[in-house]
Amino acid sequence: MKNVHIVVVGGVASGPAAVAEARRTAPEAKITLFERGPDISYSACEMPFLMAGQISRMERLIRFTPEAFADKYTADVRTHQEVEFIDAASRKIRYRNLKTQEVSSMAYDRLIMATGARANMPSTLASSTKDIYVLRSLDDVRMIERVILRSSIRHAVVIGSGYVGLDAAWALKARGLRVTLLSPSGILSPTLPSAMGQIVKEHLQSAQIVVRAERASSVEKAGDGRIIAILTDKGEKIGCDFVLVAAGTAPVADLGAQAGLKVGVNGGILVDDQMRTSVQGIWACGDCTERKELIFDATIRAPLSLNAFRSGRVAGRNAARSGRGRPATIAPLVHAAALGLGTLEIAHTGWNLEQATSLGKNVVSATIQSRTASAMASNSPVHITLVAERDSRRLVGGQIVGGAGSAQRVNVLTTLIRAKGTVEDLYNVDFVYAPSLAPAHDPLFVAARTLQKSL
Amino acid sequence: MKNVHIVVVGGVASGPAAVAEARRTAPEAKITLFERGPDISYSACEMPFLMAGQISRMERLIRFTPEAFADKYTADVRTHQEVEFIDAASRKIRYRNLKTQEVSSMAYDRLIMATGARANMPSTLASSTKDIYVLRSLDDVRMIERVILRSSIRHAVVIGSGYVGLDAAWALKARGLRVTLLSPSGILSPTLPSAMGQIVKEHLQSAQIVVRAERASSVEKAGDGRIIAILTDKGEKIGCDFVLVAAGTAPVADLGAQAGLKVGVNGGILVDDQMRTSVQGIWACGDCTERKELIFDATIRAPLSLNAFRSGRVAGRNAARSGRGRPATIAPLVHAAALGLGTLEIAHTGWNLEQATSLGKNVVSATIQSRTASAMASNSPVHITLVAERDSRRLVGGQIVGGAGSAQRVNVLTTLIRAKGTVEDLYNVDFVYAPSLAPAHDPLFVAARTLQKSL
After folding, report:
1. A434 touches chain B (CB under 8 A)
2. pLDDT tens digits, residue range B141-176?
3. Residues 6+ apart with CB under 8 A from B87
4. CATH superfamily of B336-454
């Protein structure tokens, strides 16, 4: 594998994982990492800690500086350089130095796409994006920090109530700002059943975050260009001086699509279980991809840290391997995610009732309310919804909102789903019981029993 | 099923569960429940809360009084009555009223043994048992309360450092007593690897519980009969005024053995997956039984609350069924247990390295130390040992000691073990990540990766 040249496009999470694994696989390979921004190898999921003022130094989020990474993995790390064109036939890329605007080209032997995802911007706000912030990159946080520190922000409006929106709203509130969250279709909808969304809403309200069921229709600005209000679809005007949009993300797949890579129904670069794209010599990993999930064999995106790491490892290994032995493979996905908001834990795995039904599946769900521990001990409520296929009785998803231990319980469900387990398998789990840690009948056991009765 | 008479022997946990399920199965059956003590249907696992003074009323531990239970399940509940003899051939029992010493006999059609387990008493202390306390029944706690309240106890010695010993020592310390724990072979040995036992030991010590690696050899008493010291095998004399023995339990199987029920290698009544004993017309459930476990097909005891409930349900159902349809079955066991000691969580599942090796299995283990959450958030150490079969790569056990979420993580391992999953299956779990709830690489994921390298 001497002299093989591996080019990796994108340096946040899966790109660096791919480089590291490629280096382990092919000690002699030449590896080049392109990143359009100034930073590589950082923890995007922890940026809210910075916004909340809970950590003060941005450097804590950075695992490797470009220099340290280049040194550790003997890679040519090129920040502020954007790959603009891929010629897959001749295996060449064209890239631009974003500081000098100089355009150059480079040959590759194997290419790994790790271009990530970008924040969605509602069309109604698209014309005002200059003054509206998103939370995708470390550079976004730098800008947010600058505006918060500079202009004595008092009232922030967060648009979107998915995991990122809630996380950001909570962080801004912790920072001491007044926070209004716009949630036109319900908190964490459609991920959580609406009754669970309501519980989260009450938790946000108890933390003095104002939640409004309105959609932002436009932004009002002062003469000096500063935002002074959000106008909503209900004709309301919400005075504010800071707007953060968290309206979901979309895979950055245009560069790949231009190179002929097949793109899936969710807009991501389609990859197989070796993280191969549809074009020979090109792999892809992380947030820019979509691939098979385990439960219904559907194609989904999983823009999550662990998937970025794991898929990056597989892409890096396979791009760097000499062709001897078996290629590395990745297991089909189960989509699972969690969020902590103070004492409340929110988590889900697999499909919810609505999603599974819309896929044409005959599914049943059951919801229970229980407690995280024995009534004798400190405990809090926990709400669980389980979803199972009616005929096979296979568990296909679960949503949990509650106190300590709720998120870890979702990992139990994910493990069971991966094993294609049924509701009976969940009932049969030998759940541990210790009064201060879990009630005699674990909430998951109670949920399994309840769902058994509905099946 | 009219006029069928079901007799249940033992009323703490699995007995009442059996009665309840038998009643649901056969609304017309006659059901009699015998209990030698004064109480039925209580939560033995929560008795330490009472000892710790964290709850004040014993009634909180009681789910049903005998009267309320009799009323709810239309059962003849006989407390203070001990079954002394079973004539399985003629389906008759002989029992004694422990208050009047009157002996009577009664015919049954189906019999369910739920006689539980008794506390082991080291032979060196057997002659002094009158003044030594154990923690098995509500009546034990009544006696302990009486002596603590009456005689201004100052220094308690707890003999034994398994789950119950630790739980009791922690509770007595919380009550304000000076506490010494005798742990001759190491804390939670052999359940936990000794390095993990050491972590628990340091935690106990940080709570001012004195831990001594000595064995109690005898008790020294004052002229008035009160305990004044424990003498140890190292010739030491530990002045104390209260002794609690927590040296494990043994199934109460003598009554069953006398009736011809087969008893297993662990001394428990052998039952199959329908909770049938070796004798027609007799079922058994709960702490007095032993049965197949899932991993190596060994026969084990699982004196645990959830097993009592589940096995009681199955025994009750099958004893009460008319013979139509399929009998209820119970899944093979995976032994899993947990304990919370303040901020420290201890849990294990399946087999440890030593146990599996002694069963002749070729197993490998790996131990990691990680954190319960991201370094940015509040987090604590967590130590995980995983054990897997070398050839099949199947996970066969795990032990965890650490901060919040450690015990719930053991449920993930149990779920995987039940599904006969491999270390790769554990690596593949889509663990949730939220900085305040779990690090980007969950400790279980880290442990799986480490064990992969050892296999």
Report:
1. yes
2. 999 988 888 777 889 999 999 999 999 999 999 999
3. B93, B94, B259
4. FAD/NAD(P)-binding domain (3.50.50.60)
